[in-house]
Design a protein that fits this description.
With 554 residues, this protein is an alpha/beta fold. It is built from 17 helices and 27 strands. The strands form six sheets. The protein has an eight-stranded mixed sheet with strand order 2-1-3-4-13-12-11-8. The site of ligand 1PR has 32 residues, from strand 14, strand 20 and helix 11. This is Imidazole glycerol phosphate synthase hisHF.
Length: 554
């Protein structure tokens, strides 16, 4: 008897479990159809792709028992896909949903905005005076999805009686929470929405079970979109993690990717810079208001990631104390263990998701895949790459591509290479000996150790075709320099793709964040060194953005 959680076997459901533990609730996982009879309340933290979710529920014999559980009138709380399965269908999938809310889930219109919708947005209650279910109009909640149920009272009046709150993205108003009778569901992830999300989960669980059965139908509204949506710009703290010379995992930080101290002795290179312990720093950045955290295993190309238990342990421990999204990068690719066992990129990613990661970030492997895609004439991928397999199972929003480009300076008058259309004639900088030259951006692999004949524009175009959900744009020339983000690079990538982009490398002051959000349409900005060395606080960055009328989460 009691609270049960439904896990259909894919995606990060650990974060909800961690939230419940943090809030002091006990729960049991649904293991078999009979468990639905024992449950007195149920949370379904659906993560990933609609098709995969329904397929897993069906194959484990849970689809019909779930429907019966909901129809029995016992309290149900669905999160993200756990809310979407209540609907009739999704254009993402061939399989049907539970059909409880009679309208379809469809793709966002990408003509006026980046898709997926990733980040912190507000939720407006349909009836503000009604029971809020813990949804606060003044709070921001974390969304990550490409598909949504549109608020459409003309076409689907019956379905709209389920609507509890709506959210605006671009000029679209979609359903961000549903509630009727015993059912509650959120499109956003409360378990990833910081303190506001934990408060919402707590509010639902505190309510006596009997009080969950009476939510009335919602009135229909004529909702007119506001001139702009409330999606905030995201500030991401990044931790580059590797083993130091003593074998301990530490957060390090490079200058143009060189993470060793400059002091070199006769017998050894400088030591690996140690800026702290990954889990302690992650907890600190969560408390400090980071909107997202990124942990990059920067030497994973040397090892088999599934043998790299310390990194999985770091992710597990970080997910226990961090309730904002966590991206894990490094070594997401097909590998072979030392004993010859083959591990697919999908397996590696799955291990990180189960440990508590929300997104995985793919670096070197993305470059090799785009090389193959270009050789095939930019047709669709063959479905076997890490990007495609992970996006298919977990949804494209779970796949970040991390690009590590370098500038290549050329004399524009004599340059005859293939990247003439991509040449940048920067206003300001470039090293002394390259002044007056133009440049293009060349991709690298293995943490900048090897350059490849792929430009950043080709890479961005390729990974968008393959199904990546977001691009993290580093720049080796700027990494650790404090000179500011390379706005030319960020604009170049933004012009190439429709998916969200994260600017990275070079942040040296709060003003640099203002610059990147004012002068480019980028969705998020990431920094490492200035946060690790406490030169600039996350709160100071957000204050500067607020002073410049740039929307951020408190
Ligand atoms: O190739 O899939 O195994 O992934 C490896 C990952 O590790 C990639 O995401 C790659 O960017 C990262 N990586 C590899 N070597 C290094 C290194 O520094 N030697 N770190 C490295 C990259 C760059 C940024 C950094 C920003 C901001 N780190 O993430 O955090 O430049 O720094 P700043 O604010 O101090 O300027 P794979």
């Amino acid at each position: 008897m009691g609270l049960y959680l439904l896990d259909y076997g894919a995606g990060n459901v650990q974060s909800l479990a961690n939230s419940l533990t943090k809030l002091g609730y006990e729960f049991t996982w649904v293991a078999q159809p009979e468990d639905f009879h024992k449950a007195t309340s149920l949370i379904f933290p659906g993560v990933g792709a609609f098709e995969t979710a329904i397929a897993h529920l069906e194959s484990r014999g849970l689809f019909q028992p779930l429907k019966e559980y909901i129809q029995s009138g016992k309290p149900y709380f669905g999160i993200c896909i756990g809310m979407q399965v209540l609907f009739e269908s999704s254009t993402e999938a061939t399989r049907k949903g539970l059909g409880i809310v009679p309208c379809p889930i469809e793709s966002f219109d990408a003509s006026d905005k980046a898709v997926p919708h990733i980040g912190w947005n507000s939720a407006d209650l349909i009836t503000p005076s009604d029971d809020t279910e813990g949804v606060q109009p003044s709070s921001y909640y974390y969304f990550v999805h490409s598909y949504r149920a549109k608020y459409d009272a003309d076409t689907y009046p019956d379905a709209m009686t389920w609507v509890h709150a709506t959210t605006q993205y671009g000029q679209e108003t979609f359903i961000s929470s549903v509630r009727k009778g015993n059912v509650f569901g959120t499109q956003f992830h409360p378990e990833k929405s910081g303190k506001a999300g934990l408060a919402l989960i707590d509010a639902w669980l505190r309510k006596p079970e009997a009080a969950h059965t009476h939510a009335p139908p919602a009135p229909l509204r004529n909702l007119i979109p506001k001139p702009t949506h409330s999606l905030t710009k995201r500030i991401i703290a990044c931790m580059d993690v590797r083993a130091n010379d003593q074998g301990d995992l530490v957060v390090t930080k490079g200058d143009q990717y060189d993470v060793r101290e400059k002091i070199v002795t006769a017998n050894s290179a400088g030591a690996v810079r140690n800026l702290g312990k990954p889990v302690a720093l992650a907890a600190k950045y969560f408390e400090a208001g980071a909107d997202e955290l990124c942990l990059l295993n920067i030497t994973s190309f040397r090892h088999s990631p599934l043998q790299d238990q310390p990194m999985l342990a770091v992710v597990r421990a970080a997910a226990e104390c961090v309730f904002v999204p966590l991206t894990i990068g490094g070594g997401i690719k097909d590998t072979v263990d030392p004993d010859g066992t083959k591990r697919s990129a999908l397996e590696v990613a799955g291990a990180y998701f189960r440990a508590g990661a929300d997104k995985v970030s793919i670096g070197s492997e993305a470059v090799y895949t785009v090389e193959r895609l270009r050789a095939s004439g930019w047709q669709k991928g063959d479905g076997t790459s890490a990007i495609e397999t992970i996006a298919h199972t977990y949804g494209r929003q779970a796949v970040v591509v991390s690009i590590d480009p370098k500038r290549v300076y050329v004399d524009p008058k004599t340059y005859e290479g293939p990247y003439q259309d991509e040449l940048v004639y920067g206003k300001e900088d470039g090293p002394e000996n390259e002044r007056g030259k133009a440049w293009w951006y060349q991709c690298t692999v293995s943490g900048g150790r090897e350059v490849r004949d792929v430009s950043v524009v080709e890479l961005a175009k390729g990974v968008d075709i393959l199904g990546a959900g977001e691009i993290l744009v580093n720049l080796i020339d700027r990494d650790g320099t404090g000179l500011g983000f390379d706005l030319d690079l960020v604009n170049l990538v933004k012009r190439t793709v429709k998916i969200p982009v994260v600017a990275s490398s070079g942040a040296g002051s709060a003003q640099h964040f203002v610059d990147v959000f004012r002068d480019t349409p980028v969705e998020a900005a990431l920094a490492a060194g200035i946060f690790h060395r406490e030169e600039v606080k996350i709160s100071a960055v957000k204050q500067a953005l607020r002073e410049n009328s740039i929307n951020v989460r408190d």
